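Z., the sequence and structure:
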Amino acid sequence: MEHITLLLGIVIVTALVFDFTNGFHDTANAMATTISTGALKPKTAVAMSAVLNLVGAFLSIEVAKTISGGIVNEDGLKTEVIFAALVGAILWNLLTWLVGLPSSSSHALFGGLIGAAVMSMGWSSINGGTVVTKILIPALAAPLVAGIAAMLATRLTYRIGRDTDTKATAKGYRVGQIASAGLVSLAHGTNDAQKTMGIITLALVTGGVLNPGANPPMWVIVSAGVAIALGTYLGGWRIIRTMGKGLTDLQPQQGFAAQTSAATVILASSHLGFSLSTTQSCSGAVMGAGLGRKGGVVRWSTATRMFVAWGLTLPAAGLVGAGAEFLTKQGPWGIAATAAILIGGSAVIWALSRRDAIDHTNVTDDEIGGTTKDAEPAGVVTTAIAAVSPPPVGTTATADAPSEDQVKATVSAPTTTTTGAMADPARPATV
């Protein structure tokens, strides 16, 4: 009994560590566009997001109930399985944070739980219907719905404000961004904080502390809310940079449209108990906002890497979770080895991140670590959609007039000289 109690305590602490990583991994969901457009200072933005994440954790428990009693069968589930699942989720979260990819913390948790459960009890332990209806379908639908909504909202925003002063509207939309960012943070608390509540509740059920189907106790709700708030306050600066400047360059109107669309999707899913990825919803909304403005460019190379990470998250976390469960089944030494792998892997990833540090002082810079963010030309999709989008407010350039970049290129073009010989008159002039 003492061993079970100790293991249960380790699982609860590990779950809160995952919740902490979830906080700094997903800060970008709410605040990347607000920071990139200058609506809020970086530290102010993450502090505001942290507070609202904590508040959101108390608004609903529907998602927590889905996690604790829907994905895997509770009968025969051991506490070691949950520990192994959390190891897989944490390591994947940290790895994707290191490379700045906004992958889904939710799917990392689901993948780790499914992999560990299958290794422990076989495929019969998984409730396939719940996985399909409340995880896989929302994973496909959420970014599409948020993206389409953000694209339409961006078009409508520019159309409504086409006859207004650009500076005045930009200031107004920055204020609107602050409100919409707060809404996203609140929505994130109602969805993601509950996933950790569900995992801890599931662990308490397996340890015999709670009856199957029980709601999360108040201390679980409070601890999960505080953990995700602390993680959010530290700020996942590497992912904030990717979403704020790596996917597309956003104007305040686009940021407002993206955040409002994402918040609507997340809050609706929380009400229905759908445990969707807030990262995918917000990323889809950012790309939709980029496509909604004429001249806006979505950097598809970054988006493609992000899509690959989304697709790998469930199976990769599942494999790590299954491997961790294989170790924990060996007894106390296996549990100790799994904990050592988690601590050692986390330390290595943190050390690697210090080589190219990104924080609140340089998160919006174009140059970090001696490399400059390269401009990516518009692709086929961007060009096709942007061609029918309304122009940004205040643009009056004609099709025949040279662009400012063209003029600068012409003026600064180097002059060709000849030394010791006359220039060949047959050679075409260089412009």
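The chain has a mean pLDDT of 75. Strands lie at 367-368, 371-372.

Let me know what you think.
H.
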